[in-house]
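Our consortium's second objective concerns turning raw sequence data into structural hypotheses that experimental partners can test. To show how far this objective has progressed, the report includes one record in full. It was chosen at random from the queue rather than selected for favorable results. The single chain below, 162 residues long, was entered without modification.
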Amino acid sequence: MSEKQVNEVAVEEVEETLDTDNIKQLRQEYKKLKAENKQFKTQAMDSALTSMGLSSDKGLGKAVTKLYDGDVTVEAIQDFVNTEFGEDVINTDTPEPAAPPTENVIEAQSRVEQLNKLGVDNEPADALQQAVNYINDPDTSVKNSIGAKLAMMDKIKEQDKQ
């Protein structure tokens, strides 16, 4: 081979390796940009669906994320939903405020608050003394006495929990 042929072959090999390296870099960059674009589109779709009152995880929102490939603006998605699923699927109006409670509910609530303020216990004040008298009474059987003691212990534990 002549020197000219050797130089031409060497130049061609260098150009081929540069071309393949550049192509690989371009492919990697393309894959990276494509993944980022997909992520941004997903986030934009979630945001648009949320502003429309839908969830991308379930129901109509999930169907829209699977079927829709267009522009990810709220208006475009809303137009798509209206044409594909019907006009009345999405309630674009602001939600109506809850109806005010009726007079009976207000009166009942005030009565409950009054009872909570009073905090009256329905047991007599001397319940402990009555239980002690019952236990110490000679006419009370051993079985009933033990049962009363256990009931008192349960009652005391219950009061301690509160």
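The partners drew two points from this record. Residues 2 and 127 are 121 Å apart (CA to CA). The chain has six helices and no strands. Both points have been shared with the crystallography group to help prioritize constructs.
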